[in-house]
Amino acid sequence: MYNPEMTYQVDIMDELLIDPLPDDVKPFVIKRGYWMPDEAASVYARAHSVLSFECHSPIIAAANKTPMFYLRQPEDTIKGQMYYDLGFSDWVFEIEQTTGKQIADRLRQVWTNYEIACSKLDSSMKQVDRIYGEKCKEVDKV
Is the pLDDT of residue 129 over 90? Predict the structure, then answer.
């Protein structure tokens, strides 16, 4: 499933994403088009894992306790650094420095050790909660 974050991406997803896939994979691809974050959150909450080129989909997945992977592209902004800062470096793939096998191997690790992956996610999300709490206290002082 591909969740475009910009409406123009819907028009180019066939050519760039779906058409190049092997014929035995295409039947398993669901083309949804553009959708809103609440729908994405509902789907991601029921997913086993989320793999995304988009920066926000993994955040939505993590907030719903779903292991996620961020495929970071060179044109992505500095905001992708947050994944490293929050302890998700094992789940970030700098796409021009990563092979499909590396991604598949990491996905398999999550598949075979799902409880460990969920524990890792929970630990990182506690870090997010701690940082959020500290920053809210700073705002309250202002």
Answer: yes
Residue 19 is assigned to a structural domain of this protein:
no
User: What are 134's strand-pairing partners?
Assistant: none
Strand partners, 52: 70
pLDDT of residue 2: 58
**3 state SS for 46-72:** HCCCEEECCCHHHHHHHHCCCCEEEEE
**Residue 15, in any domain of the structure:** no
Written as six digits, the tokens of 9 are 């991406």
* Mean pLDDT within 25-43: 85
d(Cα 106, Cα 62) in Å, to the nearest integer?
17
Reported as a single tens digit per residue, the pLDDT across 60-110 is 999 999 999 999 988 888 888 989 988 899 999 999 999 989 999 999 999
pTM of the model: 0.82
Q: Which residues pair with 65 in a beta bridge?
A: none
Domain-located, residue 30: no
- Is residue 2 in a domain? no
Parent domain of 49: 36-141
- Structural domain total, the chain: 1
Give me the count of residues in the chain: 142
